[in-house]
Structure formats: C-alpha cells, structure tokens
Amino acid sequence: MLATGFAGGLEIGLGVMAYLAVLHATGDHLLAGIAFGVGLVALYLAHSELFTENFLMPIVALVAKEGTVGQLLRLWVGTLVANLAGGWLFMWLVVQAFPQWHDELEESARHYVDAPFGLQVAVLAVLGGSTITLVTRMQQGTDSDPAKIVAAVIGGFLLSGLQLFHSILDSLLVFGAIQAGASISYGQWLGWFGYTLVFNVLGGVVLVTALRLVRSADLLQHRRRSAPAEPGRSSTEQ
C-alpha cells in the first residue's frame, strides 16, 4: 500500500510536469490540462494508488462486508501520506530541473492557496473529488485498455484544465512553488489542504459511490450474504 501510494505520487508528478511544460509554452490551462492526463495514464498502467481513487471500490467492499472500517481508514491514510511524500520528492526534482517554470508554479499554486473559502471553492473541491472517482468508475466499467486510457485523459483534462480543487494534484503544485522559493508556507498549504480534502471525499463518496451503491443494491446484498463472518479474513484463516 505504501509503495504503490508513493509510486502514485511520483506518477501524478509526471502529469504535473507535463502540465507545467505546456502551460509554460502556451499559457493555456485547457491545453495544459490535456497534457496532465499523462499522469493518470501512468497511474493506471503502473497499477499504482491515488488517494481519491479509493472512494469507490474500498467502500463497496466495506458495504458488502468484505472489509472493515479499520482497513478502509488504514488504506486511506497510508495512501494519502504516501501520495504526498512521493509527490513532494518528484516536485523537488522538477524544480531543480526546470527553473524556467517557477513563475508558472507560483501562479498555479496561488490559484488554490489564495482562494478565499466559500461556496465556489467548496463546489470546485466537490467536483474534483467526484471527477477522479468517476474516472475510476468508468475504468471499472470496461475491460478495454484503450477506453480506460481515454477515461484517464478525460479526467486529467477536467481536473487540471478547469482547475478543479484536488487535494493531491494541487498539493504538488503548491509543494513545487514552495521549493521554488515562492512566499507560500506549509501552514497555508495545510489550511487549504484540510477543507479541500473534506470536500473531495464528499464529492467522491456522495456523488459517485453512493449512487453506485444504490444501483448495485441487489448485488451487494448477495455479496453480504456470501461474506465471511469476519470481514477481511479468508475462509482458510477462520
């Protein structure tokens, strides 16, 4: 979990690097958003973990009595911390390699940390959480690798091109800006990160996962009846 989460942070960093390259060359956030899809494609092909992807299948498993609340919380916390650690390291490398991107980094970071909290910011974070969870839902709904890659590119475009608030992706931009010498503190990042995380969870769980649970109620009932007496343990362990 920690290894795949750390790798996930590195791979999202690839998307941020592509985003910054296009933004620096064109000044166009929509074009840069298309480039960011590289990160989500890498995440999918490498089978790594992104925190906000884990709002769907782990909760479905919990409702189906195939997992426990403790397991879910360990997954979320471990993946979140590992994503941030991997992303921080990757952004340090980007900052050292591409000093010409420092202005874009600071501008992008300030779009998030300087935004006054209000309804618009909350909704942007809800949409950020629901968008990445929907990408997972679309990828779970097909066996076609090309279709899954298209879903990743679409999700990347929406997240970055529209500058939705996403706790992991945008943290990498803030980390890069801080490392590049911008007058942004980790305290400012943490304040922004806290409410963004909450609304990301709400967006992913309420707008996507809850609807999936309602739609799959009969199947979940069957899975609950077939689940082991102690969730998370195989029949050979009981």
Provide keyphrases for this structure.
disordered C terminus; transmembrane; 238 residues; mainly alpha; Glycerol uptake facilitator protein; single chain; formate transmembrane transporter activity; Aquaporin-like
Write structural notes for this entry:
It is found in: Membrane. It is a multi-pass membrane protein. This is Formate transporter. The chain is mostly helical and 238 residues long. It has a single domain (2-229), classed as Up-down Bundle (Glycerol uptake facilitator protein). It is built from ten helices and no strands. Helix 2 packs across helix 7 (145-161) and helix 5 crosses helix 8. The longest helix is centred in the last third of the chain and has 30 residues, at 186-215. It is globular, with a radius of gyration of 18 Å. It starts with a helix and ends in a 12-residue tail after the last helix.
